[in-house]
């Protein structure tokens, strides 16, 4: 049982992404005007419609902007230490069926300015934040360069 | 209707241990009254607020329980400006011929630790380390630089200009001029923004 719980991984929040099978970010799409939101929400920020439906978002997109979080945030930030700087960006994603794009704010797996570029292709992945009281890893979504950069041989 | 600012007051910008934000606001209000040559009892209406240092209307405990309508404003960094805009409209509407507008604040050092749920966001947004204003400004300027071909040297130039101006203002937070190089070489907080590009 101990080994099992060490391997258990749970989403940081319900409704953000499907888990654990075929993990996808879950957006909201407005049938009236085509607007996509992330996270999913009931009302449309463009046309005030209330019929938004939950849709999976594409797993690849392009980096729209980025920064690097250099210092450890205060609570409510809740990740196990020790702190290391992390990348944050907005990634432009369409819905999985090719619907209207949305800018998704996300952790990035890369925290090196030399390896981040606006317009670069990015791919969805998942990273552990901390362990919960049961020992399960608490997971959140993140984006990594796509394709992953060639590892340096040096 | 012509609206004019007839009196102003300010408390020096700074940490000021032991002096509450409200007390600093009341200090500025007294200065403004003296500047205008009037008393608190002559003020028939006020708008004011802070983001994190309390409700402006409780300032009547310091300034006087005159019974005036004192409307609290809570609008982030724009709180003082919003109070001023509302005061202007209260005069233009004919409701009042004199109004006080006041803004003040006081924060612990470092970045804000904002509550995601107060902004309609899930707790996860703060837990995963996305709820930082510094981060937002870094990403915003990164995109702006990309779209308008602005260099990091320009960011340093803008900050150095602000420090030059601060050196001439006795109420400023920082009064030491810094060179563009000092700004650019200060610790990186949220790429491409360094410590002295924030404050």
What would your notes on this structure say?
The complex is a heterodimer of chains A (154) and B (199). Chain A contains one helix and nine strands. Chain A is mainly β. Chain A has a five-stranded mixed barrel. In chain A, strands 3-2-4 form a three-stranded antiparallel beta sheet, with no helix packed on it. The longest helix of chain A has 6 residues, at 2-7. Helices cover 41% and strands 8% of the residues of chain B. In chain B, β4 and β5 (193-194) form a beta hairpin. The relative contact order of chain B is 0.12.
Separation, N- and C-terminal Cα atoms of chain B: 38 Å
In order across it, which strands form the biggest sheet of chain A? 5-6-7-9-8
Give the fraction of residues assigned to helices of chain A. Answer: under 10%
Poorly predicted ranges of chain A (pLDDT <50, ≥5 residues)? 1-5
- Structural class, from secondary structure content of chain B? mainly alpha
Q: How does the helix and strand content of chain A classify structurally? A: mainly beta
Low-pLDDT segments, ≥5 res of chain B: none
Counting H and I runs of at least 4 residues, what is the number of helices of chain A?
Answer: 1
The pLDDT mean of chain B sits at 95
Order of helices and strands of chain A: HEEEEEEEEE
Radius of gyration of chain A: 17 Å
Secondary structure: elements and pairs:
The complex is a heterodimer of chains A (154) and B (199).
Chain A: H1 2-7, E1 9-11, E2 26-29, E3 36-37, E4 53-56, E5 60-69, E6 86-93, E7 102-108, E8 121-131, E9 137-145
Parallel strand pairs in A: 1-9, 7-9
Antiparallel strand pairs in A: 2-3, 2-4, 5-6, 5-8, 6-7, 8-9
Chain B: H1 21-36, E1 46-49, H2 60-63, E2 70-72, H3 79-92, E3 100-103, H4 123-127, H5 133-148, H6 152-167, H7 180-185, E4 188-190, E5 193-194, H8 195-198
Parallel strand pairs in B: 1-2, 1-3
Antiparallel strand pairs in B: 4-5
């Amino acid at each position: 049982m101990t080994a099992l719980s060490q391997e258990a991984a749970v989403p940081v929040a319900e409704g953000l992404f499907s888990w654990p099978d075929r993990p996808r970010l879950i957006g909201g799409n407005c049938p009236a005007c085509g607007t996509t939101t992330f996270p999913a929400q009931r009302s449309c920020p463009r046309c005030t419609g209330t019929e938004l439906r939950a849709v999976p978002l594409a797993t690849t997109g392009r980096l729209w902007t980025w920064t690097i979080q250099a210092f450890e945030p205060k609570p409510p930030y809740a990740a196990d230490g020790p702190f290391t700087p992390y990348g944050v960006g907005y990634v432009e994603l369409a819905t999985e069926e090719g619907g209207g794009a949305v800018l998704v704010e996300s952790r990035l797996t890369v925290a090196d300015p030399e390896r981040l570029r606006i317009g670069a292709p990015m791919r969805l992945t998942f990273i552990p934040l901390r362990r919960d009281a049961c020992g399960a890893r608490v997971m959140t979504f993140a984006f990594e360069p796509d394709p992953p950069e060639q590892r340096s041989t040096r | 209707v012509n609206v004019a600012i007839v009196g102003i007051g300010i408390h020096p910008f700074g940490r000021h241990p032991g002096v509450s934000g409200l007390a600093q606001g009341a200090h500025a209000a007294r200065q403004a009254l003296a500047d205008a040559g009037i008393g608190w009892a002559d003020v028939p209406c006020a708008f004011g607020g802070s983001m994190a240092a309390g409700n402006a209307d409780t300032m009547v405990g310091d300034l006087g329980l005159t019974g005036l309508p004192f409307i609290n404003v809570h609008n982030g960094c724009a709180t003082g400006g919003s109070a001023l805009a509302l005061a202007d409209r209260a005069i233009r509407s004919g409701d009042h011929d004199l109004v006080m507008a006041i803004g003040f604040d006081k924060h612990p050092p470092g970045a804000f630790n904002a509550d995601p749920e107060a902004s309609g966001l899930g707790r996860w947004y703060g837990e995963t380390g996305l709820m930082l204003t510094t981060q937002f400004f870094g990403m915003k300027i990164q995109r702006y630089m990309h779209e308008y071909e602005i260099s990091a040297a320009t960011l340093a130039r803008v900050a150095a200009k602000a420090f030059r101006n601060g050196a001439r203002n006795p109420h400023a937070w920082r009064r030491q001029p810094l060179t563009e190089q000092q700004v650019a070489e200060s610790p990186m907080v949220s790429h491409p923004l360094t410590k002295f590009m924030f404050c």
